[in-house]
Structure formats: C-alpha cells, structure tokens
Amino acid sequence: CSKADLGPISLNWFEELSSEAPP
Amino acid sequence: HSVEQNEMEDLPACDSVNPGNLQLVSKLKNPSGSCSVDVGTMWWETAGHKEPCIVTACEYIVSLWKPLDTWQWKKVYSWHFTEVPVLQIVSVPDVCNLVCVALGNLEIREIRALLCSSHDESEEQLLLKSGNIKAVLGLTKRRLVTSSWTLCDQQIEMMTFAEDGGSKEKQFLMPPEETILTFAEVQGMQEALLGTTIMNNIVIWNLKTGQLLKKMHVGDSYQASVCHKAYSEMGLLFVVLRHPCAKGSESFGSPVFQLIVMNPKTALGMGVMLYCLPHGQAGRFLEGDVKDNFAAAVLTSGKIAIWDLLLGHCTAILPPISDQNWSFVKWSGTDSHLLVGQKDGNIFIYHY
After folding, report:
1. pLDDT in tens, A1-23
2. A4: distance to nearest CA of chain B, Å?
3. What SS3 string covers B73-103?
4. What is the maximum span of chain A, computed from C-alpha positions, in angstroms?
5. Rounded to the nearest 5°, which phi and psi values hold at B162?
6. Which residues contact B323 (CB under 8 A, 6 or more apart)?
7. Are B347 and B28 in contact (CB under 8 A)?
8. Banded pLDDT at B17 (limits 50, 70, 90)
9. Is B235 within 8 Å of A23 when comparing Cβ atoms?
10. What is the DSSP secondary structure assignment for residue A5, as one 8-state letter?
11. Which of B213, B214, B236 has its CB closest to that of A9?
C-alpha cells in the first residue's frame, strides 16, 4: 500500500466536506 | 462533610515494580469497601485557587481527592448513589468544579453531573441525560457528547457547560443510521468529532453545524474496532484503534492497538502500524486510554502495558502489585501522570 492508494488528498478536507454535506 | 486522609502506606520498592520509565510517586486507598470501577482527574477551584484533583469511583460512591503536600491526598467530597451503580467517570476538559459519571448496570442508563454548591459546600448531583445511552465523551471547550436511542431514533446530543460548570446549552448532531459505539476528538481540530459505529464505520461530524460529513468503512480486518484518538496531518486522518482480536499466536507478536490512516475526502484507508506486546508477553486488551503520543492498556494477564505511538513499540510493562491484577488505567488530564487501579480500591499514581 502507498499514499497514492488513498486517492486525491486535500489539506482543507474539513471545510470542503462541510460545504458539500447537507446542512 | 467528613474529610478523610489517605494512608501513605509503605510503597513497594521501586525496582521491583517500576519497569521502564514508570516512577511510582503516590498511592491512595479508597476505603469504601465496594468494588473500584474507575479513576479520573479534574480541576477544582476554591477562592481563586485551582488545584488538580483525583476522582475515584466505586460502584455506589464517587469521591474527590485534593492534593496535600508531598504527594498525599485527602478525600474532600463524596457523591452517593443508591439505585444504579457507577460505570465510568466522564471527565470534561476545560471546566472546573464539575465531573460527570455514567451510571448503569451493563449499559449506560444515566449521565449525571457532580457538583459542589459554592454557598454551603454540599455535594450536588444533576441528572443530565437518561435512557438507552450507548456512548459518552467529554470534549475540549467544556463540551459533552452522548449517543442514545429512543424508540426508533438515534440522538447525538452535545451539551456545552459554562466555565463554572453551571448552565448548559444543548445541540443535536445529525445521527447516522448505524448505532454509534464510541466517540473520539480529532486532536487540534476542535470542531471535528469522530464516531465508530456498530457496522465498523467511522463517521465525522462538524460540531459547529451538527453536519454528518462522511462515513468511512474501516475494513473487515478491523471488526468492532474502537477509536481512542485521532489527529489530522497533511490532509489525512490518523486514527488509533484498539485491536479487536489480539492473539498471542500471531507471528509478529500480540497487537493491542493499531494506527490506520484514512483520506476523509475519498473514505479510503489503510493500516500504518500495529502496537504489539513484546515477545514473551501475552494478553488481550481489556481497557485502555490514549493521550498525546502514549497508549496504555490493561491486559487480560493483569498487567498494564504502555506504548510510545511515535516510536511504535512497548516502552513499559507494569506487573500486578501484591498479586492483585490491574483493572483500570487512565492518563491524567491535568499533568503527565498515569493513574492505575485495582478492584479493591488501591490507586497508584506513576510519573511517566
């Protein structure tokens, strides 16, 4: 396994998931 | 109220019981007679003076111990319970003069806040929540989160206490379809909360908005895993789980904790490290606690083992003292000590 197996990584994952998730 | 002082009995010789980096600094004996179930730490403030205190729990009594000089402790308050026994102490960080307890027989039926009235110094307890409670955790910024089931709905509720432990606000988080078994904070991210579910998933909430952000399957090799700690680094989520089925027969040793990494954007994850017992040591996880870079576990062998999560290996093994197996272990929330306890009420405090 390597880091590439985890798919594209975002440093702002928390903000991005918060803007995508239903309120 | 009565003020008792613990006996400073003869401490066992350091060399015989303090392996590794553990140094015994203090011992207190909870003399209530009933079975000891948990220990914790909290801050207690009187007349503007804040002290790090110890909280001990027997089945029907929770006691607050204040520090005296030279590592001795005196019991200053006790809260008594008559109907439902205490299951665990739930410390709430960043709050003074308040500690919570979970009560129940096999499952949690009540969460109570334990306080002390400032005007007459009498002990008080306040029912915070009752019902079919599955999980509870005290969070930074004076918050407490619980998961519970009503007839057909799961409720994830977060309470925020005032600085003095008083009035509280309530907020509901979006529940997942699956039962939440445990919660874990994400270190350094005060608005993020993790939950582990009965279906072997990890969910992430935004505590500010109550949104359920993501559900990530941790894989079938991590069945019924329980999350103890998480931190986010370089866009990835590192999660310390306890290993569900540690066996002494595995060729690489006996894994007790494991570190996995997950990408919250894609929900893909993989194992990073197994934290195993040294060769020659056997035992499975009974209960444990993780703080910063250190994990501690009570094992079925009656010993306590400690791992440095960054080094990746076990750094200390604490054998039973006086032929009494260890039954619980907690890292202090107020300093760098390890609190370990035996069923008969002996609590030992180690510097690590």
Report:
1. 678 889 999 999 999 999 999 88
2. 10
3. EEEEEEEECCCCCEEEEECCCCCECCEEEEE
4. 35
5. -70, 165
6. none
7. yes
8. very low
9. no
10. G
11. B236
